Amino acid sequence: MSETKSGSSGVAAATKVVFPPAGSIPATRIVFGTDGWRAKIADEYNFVNVRRCAQAVAEYVVERGEQAKGIVIDYDRRFASEQFATAAAEVVLAHGIPIALASQALPTQMSSFEVVQRKAAAGIVITASHNPWTDNGFKIKSPTGAAAGPEMLTDIEARIAAGAGRAIETRPFADAEAAGMVERYDSFDAYVRFIRTNLDIDRLKAADIDLFVDPLYGSGSTWIPRILAGGKIRVKEIHSERNPYFGGVNPEPIPPNVDEALRTIASGHYDLGLLLDGDADRAGAADERGSFITTLQIYALLMYYLVEHRGLRAPVVKTVNETSMAERLGERYGVAVYEVPVGFKYVGPKMIETDAMMGGEESGGFGFGMHLPERDGIFADLMLLDLFLCEKEAGRWPASRAIAHLHEIAGPSSYRRVDLHFDRAIYPALKDRLLVELPQRAPKGLAGGPVVRTQNLDTNDGFKFFAADGSWLLIRFSGTEPLVRVYTEAASTAAVDANLVAGEAIVRGS
Predict the structure, then answer these.
(1) Are residues 225 and 284 in the same domain?
(2) Where are the alpha helices (DSSP H) in 237-306?
(3) What percent of the chain has pLDDT over 90?
(4) pTM for the complete prediction?
(5) C-alpha–C-alpha distance, residues 265 and 502, integer Å
(6) In what order do the strands lie in the sheet with 337-340?
(7) Rounded to an integer, what distance in angstroms lies between the CA atom of residue 3 and that of residue 8?
(8) Among 155, 165, 187, 370, which one has the highest count of C-beta atoms within 10 angstroms of its own C-beta?
(9) DSSP state of 362
């Protein structure tokens, strides 16, 4: 059923539509995990549910009397993302809230940037980040530019649930745009001016090196080459075109998804590789040999860069699945290290609370106090580039030598993660059962020696086991996909392999 309202001009201003229609299947239960709500396109992820999410965000803003501040809307390169973004916009506009809409697919962090620059009430991003190409998602940004925190998300989830089956008003997009309620934006030029206040871009451009970039077909395509254009540095980028299939891999910048890039770097005489995920808020890297630099190494490298080359001593924030090198570097340089649950919805608020210089998570998301309290893969990659140039000036070149130096001062670290996929139908019951059973089936020892401590994660979604030598094994249930992640950090590759075998056996009950 629908009911069209007409304004004084006789132009249709809003259309009231009931979602879902009476007599249809029950409304989807929408829960925001560690990084937004994600689901399979044309199944649970559909226009009905996107409108329900947008309705809840709009209600949240209206209740706080902040509708005049507007809402920023961004989207990625996935299938129909621009159409989903328009559907969300039409709901927001029906509440009398002006919007700033990305003029094209932009990196997710540009929504954070625009929210901060515009002092907007909130941000909405249509993206499923690194999920399989069959998925799409809905992220929410707080007024600080950080990912919406638990309190904000709990409120919005409750509004979504309470509104199931109720009428949702939409305003035709063309009508709202004609009325001056819509502003299109492209953040590139303003973003470059912004990062120049914290990073010497001209110095990076002047570097006499060969740089390889793989954005994995995502919305960060062409950004790094454009930022570094016009100098001596030579930049080669692959996978720049839009491909919602992402070449058949998940657009997460880790092996095997980036194996093509690693092979090219190894055979193409490149000095460094920089990688991005599908919405460009996660960073990855490879050295001159095409060896993948783990996300834990990247965290430690960035922390080392800030304390050693920039002389900063503010706190850092890391998730429970991040590297123990952070504590060792913190002790060496007198820097406080705060640990939070997995997800930038915890990292960002903690960064703001502690005035941290940096925050990061195992998935490759890094934020910086001088920049944004949110992940930015492009800025993190440029910071890595600057680090390696600083190390080159110090005589530690090529990139592999700089990484070896890191381990000389931060200790050895080998790391790997295994994702164990399960059917969506059995996943909830499996998760509930294992969360009860895991403490009783904890390993007595790991490759690093006896297990000396077991930690129940604050979010009650997994357990972490610590060996006598400081290495660890983490078993955690994903908040965005039907899978169990087994992570481990140890002193050697052999120890990591042994710990992963033990972890998978625990999960599978073998």
Answers:
(1) yes
(2) 259-267, 295-304
(3) 78
(4) 0.91
(5) 33
(6) 337-340, 316-319, 358-360, 366-368
(7) 17
(8) 187
(9) T
Would you list the DSSP string of 81-118?
A: HHHHHHHHHHHHHHTT--EEEESS---THHHHHHHHHH
Which residue from 144, 139, 138, 152 is spatially nearest to 112, judged by alpha carbons?
144
Give the 3-state secondary structure of residue 497: helix
Q: What's the CA gap between 414 and 402, in Å, rounded?
A: 16
Do both 259 and 331 map to the same domain?
A: yes
Burial of 334 (0-12, 13-18, 19+ CB in 10 A): exposed
Could you tell me if 406 and 435 lie in one domain?
no
What value does the mean pLDDT of the chain take?
A: 92
Q: Which CATH number characterizes residue 280's domain?
A: 3.40.120.10
Longest alpha-carbon distance in the chain = 76
Q: Does 474 share its domain with 401?
A: no
Last residue of one domain, picked from the residues 151, 186, 221: 186
- Apex CA 436: angle with CA 435 and CA 438, to 5°? 65
Q: Examine the domain organization and report whether 225 and 355 are in the same domain.
A: yes
Please, which residues have CB within 8 angstroms of residue 258's CB and are 6 or more apart in sequence?
214, 216, 275, 284, 286, 292
Instruction: Annotate 8-59 with three-state secondary structure.
Output: CCCCEEEEEEECCCCCCCCCCCCCCEECEEEEEECCCECHHHHHHHHHHHHH
Beta strands 449-456 and 210-214, pairing class: unpaired
Q: Which of 37-41, 137-141, 444-448 has the lowest mean pLDDT?
A: 444-448
Kindly report the CA angle at 228 between 224 and 231, in degrees rounded to 5? Answer: 160
| Tokens read off for 26 | 């029950």
- Tokens 């059973």, residue? 437
Burial of 426 (0-12, 13-18, 19+ CB in 10 A): exposed
Task: Give 188-238 pLDDT, tens digit per residue.
Answer: 999 999 999 999 999 999 999 999 999 999 999 999 999 999 999 999 999
User: Is the Cβ–Cβ distance between 88 and 126 less than 8 Å?
Assistant: yes
The number of C-alpha atoms within 13 Å of 342 and in the hemisphere containing its C-beta is 27
What would the pLDDT profile of 262-313 be if each residue is shown by its tens digit?
999 999 899 999 999 999 999 999 999 999 999 999 999 999 999 999 999 9
Do 365 and 423 belong together in one domain? no
Same domain, 203 and 78: no
* Distance separating the N- and C-terminal Cα atoms of the chain: 54
Q: Which residue has the tokens 């000389």?
A: 408
Decide: 132 and 359 in contact? Cβ < 8 Å: no
Helix (H, G, I), strand (E, B) or coil at 80: coil
What is the span of the domain harbouring residue 124?
A: 2-186
